[in-house]
Write a structure and sequence with these properties.
Chain A: It comes from Haloarcula amylolytica JCM 13557. Chain A: GO terms for molecular function: NADH dehydrogenase (ubiquinone) activity; NADH dehydrogenase activity; ubiquinone binding. The structure holds 2 protein chains of 2 kinds. Helix content of chain A is 73%, strand content 5%. Chain A is built from 20 helices and 6 strands. Chain A has a two-stranded antiparallel ribbon with strand order 1-2. Chain A has a two-stranded antiparallel sheet with strand order 3-4. A two-stranded antiparallel ribbon of chain A has the order 5-6. In chain A, strand 1 (65-75) and strand 2 form a beta hairpin. Chain A is globular, with a radius of gyration of 22 Å. Helix content of chain B is 73%, strand content 3%. In chain B, the strands form 2 sheets. Chain B has a two-stranded antiparallel ribbon with strand order 1-2. Chain B has a domain at 294-509. The two termini of chain B are 21 Å apart. In chain B, helix 13 packs parallel to helix 17 and helix 16 (397-411) runs antiparallel to helix 18 (435-461). By secondary structure, chain B is mainly α. The chains are: A mainly alpha, B mainly alpha. The A-B interface holds A 72-76, 78, 115, 118, 143-144, 147-148, 150-151, 154-155, 158-159, 165-166, 169-170, 173-174, 177-178, 181, 184-185, 188, 192 and B 351, 394, 397, 408, 413-415, 419-420, 423-424, 426-428, 430-431, 438, 442, 445-446, 449-450, 453, 457, 460-462, 492-493, 495-496, 499-500, 503.
Chain lengths: 511, 509
Amino acid sequence: MWVAALLLVTLLGTGLVFLSPDRYAGKLAAAISAVPALGSIYMYWVYLTQYGGTGNALLSPADIAFGQQLPWITLGELEVSYYVGLDGISMPLLALTTVLTTLAIVSAWTPIDERQSQFYGLMLFMEVSLIGVFSALDFFLWFVFWEGVLIPMYLLIGIWGGPRRKYAAIKFFVYTNVASLIMFAGLFALVFSTDLTSLSLPAMAEAFRTASGLPTIAGMNLMTISFIMMFFGFAVKVPVFPLHTWLPDAHVEAPTPVSVMLAGVLLKMGTYALLRFNFTMLADTARQLAVPLAIIGVVSVIYGAMLALAQRDLKRIVAYSSISSMGYVILGLVAFTPYGMGGATFQMIAHGLISGLMFMCVGVIYNTTHTRMVGDMSGLADRMPWTVGIFVAAAFGYMGLPLMAGFAGEYFIFQGSFNAPTLGGAAPVLTSLAMFGIVIVAGYLLWAMQRTLFGAFSLETDYEVSPAAFHDVAPLAVLLLLVIALGVAPDLSFAMIQDSISPVLEIGGGA
Amino acid sequence: MALAPALSLGLASLVLLLADSIDPDSTNTGLLAGISGIGSLLSFGFAGWFITAGTGIADSTGVALFNNQLVVDQMALFFMAIVGSVTTLVVLASYDYIAGHDYQAEFFSLVLLSATGMSLLSAANSLATAFIALELVSLPSYALVAFLKHNKGSVEAGLKYFLIGAVSSAILAYGISLVYAATGVLRFDGVATAISSGTVQTIVDGSIQAQSGDPAVPMAILGVGILMIIGGVAFKTASVPFHFWAPEAYEGAPAPISAFLSSASKAAGFVLAFRVFAVAFPIGDLLAAGGAINWVMAFQILAIATMFVGNFAAATQETVKRMLAYSSVGHAGYVLIGLAAVSGSGEGLSLSMSAGMSHLLVYGFMNTGAFLFIALAEYWGVGRRFEDYNGLGKEAPVACAAMTVFLFSLAGLPIGGGFFSKFYLFQATLNVSAWSLAAALIINSALSLFYYSRVVKAMWIEEPTGSRTIESYPMGLYTAVVGAAIVTVLLLPGFNRVSEIAFQAAQLL
């Protein structure tokens, strides 16, 4: 009931905002999006206090929190149902989504000045889809929401984006759609060879785990082929090297609040789906392919960081560093250890908060300076003390300063992957290489901050620079507080994540 | 009584002619559109009522009329409902579109006569009635395509459509005569008996008997006949290789008529195909009898070719209406899967046919809606090319939002029923391990998203190029477009009902 209420309130709010006049649209959207945000915080609190130690939604359906199932469609022999529910993996992601959407909407008040009701309506529509992605437990329902995210994102980039917005929007749309189709085909090859009659995720997990006698095509088991197709489909969303080229274009052209959503939540859809589908349903195959997957992750870490090092545009720097951070998630997932997988999930939350914060900071600076080029400005610290202070704190969070969420996430991942049995002898080597990524991160962030924020004030674009408005800084402060809170007390999320991860580790004989 | 859906359409067209004879120069569009609207709504209502009431289920053979020449069963009612709903939308939209033209009463009565033919075709149970009903569909539609008689494009399209239509009718009639020559009967069940028993049949007092002397069915003649019937069906459904008329006719015709032809007329062609091939030429018996043609393989080739030709051609078009015309060819390819995803012994036929039927129903709303949006654009004097739609979203957000729903649903994104109906087809192909069909479906869906999103991009993302002023927002067109959009969206959560009814109907055949 709770999930349905969140979806319904947000959906009705979407309609309301579309019809509202431009002047009030931003305020109205913020007020409406506060409802699911508060609701999910309440659900989070209930979960934290009452559902401690519950299992994984896919592996022990009896333990699903806030579950609801209604019959929906019967196609031949396939049963499709409206089936939602949460566990320790999806609960933090749901809270991240709703909180970040509210903050992103508030941060849009300053930069967005045309077609506002449509902008905020689309933001809310995206929130509906995102809530659905993280709470759906039936494949069809999940897919409806999964694709439902694309349409508002495409329009948000395409209408309100920068000069090359049309190119960036269509590239994003084509990349992710082709990826979805390949994933879809791969998954259904498995569904139809295992005699499934229900498309609920728990039923699929059960059927794939016990599947036997699958056909072999071109010397490869169908399971492996499907795994690769699904990995490809989700990896585009993450994104990992070499499927990342849509990301910098989309990020740079998207308006800042949209970048916040893109980096903060949309990238997590990819890793969340990887965890749910590839690493839970097809855990055995994932273990077999652990080393090549880990290599992909590590290459993403290093390559993304190197690309970030070469950029001058602040937004591009943050965009490329996202590729690097998401590489850690892949490395943690393939480790198949409590700290590795748990840390990967924790890193999704941490990176969602920190990268959202970084993009917002860059946005606030851009709103006043109208440039994002590192060489074009310097000495902003005197003019915008609050914004710059938070920016510096966020950057240190990105570099992995202890007592910030980023440190906890990355530390857990390294702890888990260093001795990962799935990676065998390659584990220490790969982990060390990935650790080197942090050094590069520190390199480009320190360089960029030193050039832009400190020293004597100068600005190429002749704009008056004054402290940002309260409603611009407030979301930054809220996010920073969350980052610190999760850094000081990671167990706020990590405990429930581990509860839900451990069943995944148990299947297939690992631990 | 069981024919009420068809009768109400036919009656309304006669009332229109009566009104026209009383006041020949009437330009009272409201009255004329009202009569036609009532007729088509009644038709849709009766069909819906009969489906819910279960006509044709209690007695699994359906209600047989006129010595078994017509059979009203679930399949017939399903298609009558499609025809009724599309006709209602088209009539509603025409109210604004043809205001100010001459010969309005003729326009509406031709639409309704053609719809009557489609409704009858859904129930036809013999090759003779099917042919007559098909001509009743075709003849008014030739005139309707050429209705804008001062517009060269419209007249040219009408002539082309008529010439190709006449040739294909001739082919179909010849095919029917060959089947008759080979089997001795025209009734579908009689043809099936002849094929399974291998002897020529005859009908005595309504019951099928072997002809005296038990002459054997000449399989070669039967095969040629079936091949020609496939050709006739391909024409009516705008499938490869007889699809050439479709882009011309749809582009030249008044947009509501394009909507009517590409949705309802296509559905009528498919009901004929489904019935003839499922009932009269059961594939298992046909192959067992030996020598005759394997129509499943023919439809597999046609389906794949039609999907690729339609979608690739649509991707290269410069005008929106022509793009939609080719996309409608592509969709014919998808629906052909309904007859192609079948195993050699006929297994999987009810699943694949019900998938095709479901797709036709959803398509009836989303495609009609898309063409009616074109009608709206023509009403406003917006140009024909993609660029002419630039920035339209700012001036007409509601209509453009509806169009976005249609286009994404046509592409198969889960924003409307098109997602499920395409998936249903996909499931049908996998059910019989028809990998090439499944691959073609996936590839073409991906491709179609490219050209559909061009329109979305133009409407919402591009800046308007020229100066354009939209002066009025025609109520009838808006109601039709928005109504179709709402139904398209509602078919996403409500698809279950459609697929259930379709599956039941297909199983009863």
